[in-house]
Amino acid sequence: QEIVSGENEEESNGVNLMEFSDEILLHILSYVPCTDLVLNVRRTCRKLATLCLDKSLTHTVLLQKDYKVNKDKVKQLMRDIGKEIYQLNMAGCYWLPSSTIDHVTRCKNLVKLNLSGCHITSLRLSKMLSTLQHLRSLAIDVNPGFDASQLSSECKATLSRVSELKQTLYTPSYGVVPCCTSLEKLLLYFEILDRSREGFMLSGQLMVGESNVPHYQNLRIFYARLAPGYVNQEVVRLYLAVLSDRTPENLHAFLISAPGSFAETGATKNLLDSMARNVCLDALQLPKAWINGSGLLQHLKFNNPFYFSFSRCTLSGGHLIQRVINGGKDLKSLTSLNLSGCVHCLAPESLFRKAEDDIDSNILESLVVSCCNLRHLNLSAAHHHSSESIGNHLCQLLSRLKHLLSLALPVCSITDVAANVEKPPTASNLVPQTFGRKVRIGIQTYPRNLADQANQKIESSVFWALMRSLRFLETLEIIGSSFSSAMPRNEPAIRNSLPPCVRAQSVGDSEVAAISQLTYLQSLTLAQLPNILTGSGLINIGLQCQHLRTLSLANLGMMGKVVYTSALMDMLKHCKCLRDLRLEQPYFCAGAQFFQALSHCSSLQRLCIVSRSGTLQSDAVMSFMANCLEVVMCHMFMGESLTVCKNLQQSIVRSFQADRPALNVVIFPLLHEDLTEVIRDVPMRHLDEITLFKSRVAEEPPNLWW
């Protein structure tokens, strides 16, 4: 009786959620998707009915990753709160039919609208924009068939007031840029393919009737990102031609991200010369050919720079310090720096230096001291080898950057120089890192006293100390300097990979275990770590990094055998917040045990597996999809036959598409000649964020778009 009376007393003293203040309840409700608030939660009681329609919750509606939303929900949402919405983000809602856009016309007070990745025609765009007189920020796609002549005068009037435009081009076109006469921010994403589906070569010439000239006189931010292909380069030159005639006086951010070779022309040289004379920049990114061998950086003026990207440039450390950091002067304003693939950026000169030579710690120290407020730093795709000097290791110097939120490093940069020399050869060091005949090996045994000494050294390693000092790091990438994914863009799958750097041979399980110190880690990428023997460090990460949402693993351990499967399965059982998983590993077996472990990831939404000669078990995949109700993307590029892949893909779509409107399934042989044709149909959101491997740290300036 005493126990029962005690329980009743606890129940009577329990706190009712509705007794919280409105401020606390509004904060709680802010974490609930808007569709659930308006269509479900507000129908529970009168108090919540009022709170769910509070302006703080309806002012901004984010649907960009609400994979459960459908046309009917959007229609009801716009009908109920359309007039209260000032910012609407529907980016990447590829599964919604184009007719869904018609309901946006109810949002008469819209100021910001993001429709990137949505299906929309010229006529629908015209009808919608004609009613949005307060619009100031717009993001859209320009697809084949877009015709600017179909835009009404009312639509053009709205566009003339737009000051921020993000435009993704899938066809050569100016899009709506000529209509936007008040542009202050222009973001251009060029995704035009060189060949049509029928195999015809495309031209970079604009369509008939597209001779209108863009208006850049008020431009403050210009950003262009190019996918591989010569057509994209031709079209972006047309956009830049106007800038070269007259550079906007208020331009403070000029960024062009172009893969491969993008040659400088007379027009672009005139543009850069004009910028050097007339503007003062806060953000800069240029194609490598525009910087290499030129004195451009010496003449450009910077005000309070917050973003620099010199990715793939041959810029030496001496030039970096003298021309960008002004001899080590205060650069506290710089928050994001991308030196990916900049192989000589930590060396005084580049003329007589080999890429594998030791770095100059004085240059890195000057960088760290001057840019002490860096939050995003990318040093990947280069050999940054530290010397044996005590206290001057790259990891030791980077540990001073206490504000870092994201960091990308090459594998060879995190190894202890002394440990690399003293460490006895392990099994993975003795086996060639290539595809070929499998070699039966065992883990080498050591004397007990030697093993004890090794355990004592683990926590005193420079990388362990770096992880301990960067406790608030949210994104970490450790990528082999010679790693290349088997799935490059617009090309056949790569069949062979380069061997890892010699300095990287000792990086393995203990270094992975050190990452588990990052309590707030949300995104982790590990690629080409050759000394992974068991993958035991992954278990530590699963246990300690409870906020982990994105995990990408590629080519860990020996290339001829997957040695970490058991540890990975143990890790996945603890990853309750994991949403995106990408695995790239030859000979990977996606069987029943793997998918059973993966089913513990209750929040998983996207899965991508890339495996040369890999196998899968169809029944296990179907069972996994049935158990993990949040999964909306399943991409597998394995070694199975085309028949097996097609049958499994059709079974998944047939069984789950009705309940998951956003479901996107691609299962295809990795080495099939038609792989590139299959890839081009993948929604850009998935392709860019997970399917294609790339370093994402400091890829763009922070907060480039909302």
UniProtKB/TrEMBL annotation:
Q: InterPro entries under this entry? A: F-box-like_dom_sf (IPR036047), F-box_dom (IPR001810), FBXL18_F-box (IPR047948), FBXL18_LRR (IPR045627), LRR_dom_sf (IPR032675)
Q: What residues does the F-box domain cover?
A: 14-61
Determine the domain of life of the protein's source: Eukaryota
Q: Name one Pfam family in it.
A: F-box-like
A GO cellular component entry from the record: SCF ubiquitin ligase complex
Task: State the Gene3D superfamilies in the record.
Answer: 1.20.1280.50, Ribonuclease Inhibitor
Bilayer-crossing residues are none
The GO biological-process annotations, alphabetized, read as: SCF-dependent proteasomal ubiquitin-dependent protein catabolic process
- Put simply, this protein is called F-box/LRR-repeat protein 18
